[in-house]
Amino acid sequence: MTSPPLNAEDERVLAALALAMVDKPRATLQELAQAIGVSKATLYRFSRTREELVDRLMAHGAQLMNRALAEAELDKAPAAEGLRRFIEGQLRHSELAAFMIYYWKPDTLQNARAAATWTVYFEVLDAFFLRGQREGVFRIEIAAAVLSESLISLLTGLMDAERRGRIARASLPGMIEALFLAGAQSPSGR
């Protein structure tokens, strides 16, 4: 079951909350509300407890990442274009990605709903890389699952570095694509 679409202000509040929780992991709900410039009552519309807030932000982040995955149309786009659209789409939600990186727990996938969400996500990504391998764009000696995991690791690592101010935001999409393809691209795909 998916949540109803949020309005722009709710999206902004959730993104700000996600970053505030990364920057101030021990903050109370009152402190989080102050940090993002909303009342505690506004924050309570999203959740009444910190645990509910973490769950809400994790679900919202997963929904955004999956939406960006679908919008990249990896099943239709030429491999290089699909890769570019996937990277750009994932970067659009870097606040939620930062939150998910920080709050991810190994047992997250023990939850059936979370496991189903991420299983489908990786199945789509793996299928994209398999297709790209058949087309000669990606190296065939590296398993599609390894390519998927490598791209996600590169994305999350560099998103976190950007959040910490080590990398300029503007150069991030091209940098991720170049770094990934330097290791994943087939010699014949160059």
TrEMBL record:
<dbReference type="InterPro" id="IPR036271">
    <property type="entry name" value="Tet_transcr_reg_TetR-rel_C_sf"/>
</dbReference>
<dbReference type="InterPro" id="IPR009057">
    <property type="entry name" value="Homeodomain-like_sf"/>
</dbReference>
<protein>
    <submittedName>
        <fullName>TetR family transcriptional regulator</fullName>
    </submittedName>
</protein>
